[in-house]
Design a protein that fits this description.
CATH superfamily of the largest domain in chain B: DD-peptidase/beta-lactamase superfamily
Shape of chain A: rod-shaped
Order of helices and strands of chain A: HH
Structural class of chain B: alpha+beta
Strand content of chain A: under 5%
Shape of chain B: elongated
Helix content of chain A: over 70%
Number of strands of chain A: 0
Largest sheet of chain A: none
Helix content of chain B: 25-40%
CATH class of the largest domain in chain B: Alpha Beta
Number of domains of chain B: 2
Structural class of chain A: mainly alpha
Radius of gyration of chain A: 36 Å
Largest sheet of chain B: 5 strands, mixed
Oligomer: heterodimer
Strand content of chain B: 15-25%
Distance between the termini of chain A: 102 Å
Number of strands of chain B: 19
Largest interface: A-B, 27 and 34 residues
Radius of gyration of chain B: 37 Å
Chain lengths: ~90, ~600
């Protein structure tokens, strides 16, 4: 067997090993990234849920009954009578 | 022997060693591949590959301004998964007692609850909606065995009892699905009543499932296959205006309690596009707390109940009479003495109105005058008009058990009582249908079908029918009812109002009409010069001395309309003289200041 052939075989073996390790490495990277993606999508989900809660909370705080109650009882506000209203035309 | 040992070379030892190792490997391989095949086949799949459910939420319901009316939120419910470890020793019991203090529960009640369920493996201890994140932290800190927090969706209705009868509720149930010939039952949430039920197909979510690979920390590291794609429930946008809905419910409830009424309903319709802005019903219940539920509270009377419209139908009778060209507004009817026997039955007005014009018959709401008017023209014309405005015809807004109403063919009227038809009896309509009919008057003959979904295209006819008749009824008669007639209490400062009161006797099956119990109605259009809203108010069986629509229902209309017009920014069309004077003064003042004001030139 010539030296050339021995080199080629050696190179192939090394290449093969490197490639195998590369595959394992990329697979590891892939899994790590997917795990991260999963964490982010969970986070997104949680945030969306929080957003829904905040929207409901906003609805409760901005509800007509609450505002009306506060305006009348806390600030002593009332609707003006018609004779006190001045209507400006557009 | 020594010679033999000396003869063995080092290479031979290595060769023997290598052969031994290879034999061991081959033996082990054989062992794994054949002897222990059953144990190890699919081992990797079992520990690393899992079916993973993807949960999605039911669609939300929002009002026309995108305010939430129903929403699903993920919550963490407290579950007892293993009762034996939950109460295994004294130490565990002490912890559970502490848990009871946090949850504000009685320990004995908890034990009874578990016993009643035969100590099953799965018991929901507390629903997520009652657990704050702080409470959750406290419970986790106790370190109790056999409990965990399960994620699940719960439906919230921020408007509570205000929208309860319209939106309805959802229910948890089991759905049976066949998979590979095996029937599995799956927990699902479905609409039980109201719009939640009728729009279930749109709102319904579909959970997905995927096959994933997990690592030693049980975290997903790879998705191998998607088995079912999850579908999130779609959003449903209603035409309801949350603010108007609240105003309608508030005023209805206030009046119903005041007059000790059995029930009541209000419908607010936008006449320009058929949008249903509010549908309020009393009594109601809080859908966030199932204990307050009653079948009475669930009933959406405005949509599913049919009632006899009584005097509120008289404007349509007059419109038909005018259309027949056999009656004119100034024609006179002698209703003296306010009580008369016609075809063997006695009919009465609330008082003796004497001689009334055709217009006066509606303004004073005379039953005798109405019966005399219908005698003057063909029943077919009246029937056609009632059919045209949608009496006795289902609207089709997609609500469960929507009322159809009832309108018999005019050829049968003689048998059923023609006179009853003249005064709004013998046929039935729901408050929503009545609102639609009044919107036809408001639009002077155009029919716009009411809608509850904002994106739905609604029907509107191209050519109006009965235009002249409706125009006269709207602009002359209905306004007169408010100014001089029975609807004085519906008058609104700053706006022109048109409407009609009604007082119906309660019809009880087999027993006939009840002389003690009444239904008070009011249907109105506002502002009359450029109609925007039609409001129908129905108060069922008020327990007061006066039970007429003019005293019971008209004031409710007044309050609801005043607030609604302000909320919707509708310009007043009937500014009083006082206001005009104030305006003139302001204008004069401005003119004065503008003329005399000298602006100094500043560098």
């Amino acid at each position: 067997m010539s030296n050339f052939k021995i080199y080629i075989i050696g190179l192939l073996i090394i290449g093969n090993l490197a490639l195998s390790l590369g595959i394992v490495w990329v697979e590891h990277l892939n899994r790590a990234q997917y795990r991260k993606l999963q964490e982010f999508s969970n986070q997104k989900y949680e945030l969306r849920n929080d957003w829904k809660k905040v929207r409901i909370e906003e609805g409760i705080y901005a509800s007509h009954s609450r505002i009306e109650n506060k305006a009348q009882n806390l600030l002593n506000m009332s609707l003006p009578k018609e004779r006190k209203l001045i209507t400006l035309n557009d | 022997m020594i010679n033999f040992i000396k003869k063995i070379r080092r290479i031979d030892i290595i060769a023997i060693f290598v052969v031994l190792v290879i034999s061991i490997i081959l033996l082990r391989s054989f062992n794994l591949q054949y002897t222990e095949y059953d144990r190890y086949s699919g081992f990797k799949e079992r520990i690393e590959i899992k079916h993973y459910p993807i949960k999605t939420s039911r669609g939300s319901i929002v009002d026309r301004n995108n305010n939430v009316l129903a929403e699903s939120i993920q919550m963490n419910s407290l579950i007892i998964s293993d009762t034996s470890s939950f109460l295994k020793d004294n130490d565990a019991i002490e912890k559970v007692k502490k848990l009871c203090v946090i949850l504000d529960m009685n320990f004995k009640v908890l034990l009874r609850k578990l016993k009643n369920r035969n100590y099953t493996q799965y018991t929901k201890l507390k629903k997520g909606r009652y657990l704050s994140s702080e409470t959750r932290e406290k419970i986790l800190a106790l370190g109790i065995d056999g409990i965990y927090f399960e994620k699940e969706f719960q439906r919230y209705y921020p408007e509570g009892e205000v929208t309860a009868s319209l939106i309805g509720m959802t229910k948890e149930g089991l759905e049976k699905i066949e998979k590979n010939g095996v029937i599995h039952s799956k927990s699902i949430i479905f609409g039980q009543m109201g719009l939640e039920k009728s729009f279930d197909e749109i709102l319904k979510e579909e959970d997905g499932e995927k096959i994933v690979m997990i690592d030693k920390d049980r975290k997903i590291v790879n998705q191998l296959r998607m088995l079912t794609i999850p579908k999130e429930g779609k959003k449903l946008t209603l035409t309801i205006d949350k603010r108007l809905q609240y105003v309608a419910y508030r005023e209805l409830k206030k009046q119903a309690i005041k007059v000790n009424a059995k029930s009541g309903s209000v419908v607010i319709l936008d006449t320009t596009n058929g949008d249903i802005l509010a549908v309020a019903n009393y009594p109601s219940y809080n859908p966030n707390n199932r204990r307050t539920y009653t079948p009475e509270g669930e009933r959406n009377r405005a949509i599913i109940d049919s009632l006899e419209p009584a005097s509120t139908i008289k404007p349509f009778l007059l419109a038909a009479a005018l259309h027949s060209k056999k009656v004119k507004l100034k024609y006179k009817y002698d209703t003296e003495p306010g009580r008369r026997k016609i075809d063997g039955k006695e009919y009465a007005d609330t008082k003796n109105n004497g001689i009334l014009t055709a217009q006066g018959v509606v303004v004073k709401s005379s039953n005798i005058g109405s019966i005399m008017m219908l005698e003057k023209f063909d029943n077919k014309i009246y029937y056609d008009l009632l059919e045209y405005v949608g009496i006795g015809e289902i609207i089709g807004i997609n609500f469960p058990s929507e009322a159809e109403g009832r309108l018999d063919h005019y050829t049968d009227w003689k048998k059923l009582g023609q006179n009853s038809h003249a005064i709004g009896y013998a046929f039935k309509t729901s408050p929503l249908q009545l609102a639609k009919a009044y919107s036809v008057i408001a639009n002077e003959g155009f029919v716009i079908n009411p809608r509850i979904e904002k994106d739905k295209i609604t029907y509107k006819n191209a050519q109006p029918k009965y235009k002249n008749s409706f125009s006269k009824v709207k602009n002359i008669v209905l306004q007169k009812v408010i100014e001089d007639g029975t609807g004085k209490k519906a008058k609104i400062d700053g706006y022109t109002v048109g409407g009609k009161t009604g007082t119906g006797r309660l019809h009880i099956k087999k027993e006939g009409y009840d002389s003690k119990n009444h239904i008070s109605l009011f249907a109105g259009i506002v502002p009359l010069s450029l109609p925007k809203l039609v409001i129908v108010v129905v108060i069922d069986q008020p327990q007061t001395k006066t039970h007429g629509g003019s005293d019971i229902a008209a004031p409710v209309f007044n309050k609801i309309a005043t607030d609604s017009l302000r909320i919707l920014n509708v310009s007043p069309d009937n500014i009083s003289d006082y206001q005009k004077n104030v305006l003139n003064n302001i204008e004069n003042k401005n003119n004065y200041t503008l003329k005399t004001l000298e602006v100094p030139y500043v560098l």
